[in-house]
Amino acid sequence: MPLDADERRRFEEATLPHLDAVYNLARWLTRDDHAAEDVAQDTYHRALRFFHGFRGQDARAWLLTITRNASNDWLRKQRPRQGAVPFDADLHDPGDESMNPQRLALERADREILMQALESLPDEFREVAVLRELEGLSYQQIAAITGAPVGTVMSRLSRARSQLQKKLGESLAGGGAT
Question: Which member of 1, 35, 67, 100 lies 3.0 to 4.6 Å from 30 by CB, making a disulfide possible if both were Cys?
Fold first, then answer.
């Protein structure tokens, strides 16, 4: 059902500020830049189609729930056919070239270690870590998005943090970039 001009304006005001968060979550869940673009587009298509049911609640959490579902749909369709594409920090962080090149190299190495550690987490841990640490969502919002109880969200986040800490410690101790 097409939206009238007033509804379209309301849709855009409610959803467009969250486009980066939608793409970011899709990128972390699919582990593929192009898939994240497709999932983000699918998210907005679904959101537009069901906007009549949106009652002004937290638009960000509503969109990220749709993003999670769209990502999972994409994963179910694609995973058997293709492997994950490694995250490329250079594509997502253009950096400030006016800074000291040595400092930039060290920061890039640290980011790469962190991104690799985050990539290595199991899906359910990576998902809550991204939503909490990168998107800054509350436990309640994450629970609503994932459909898991708040206690489960807290447990998964605790395990994700422990695994990240262990992996980062191993990377640094094992001669990784410092």
Answer: 35
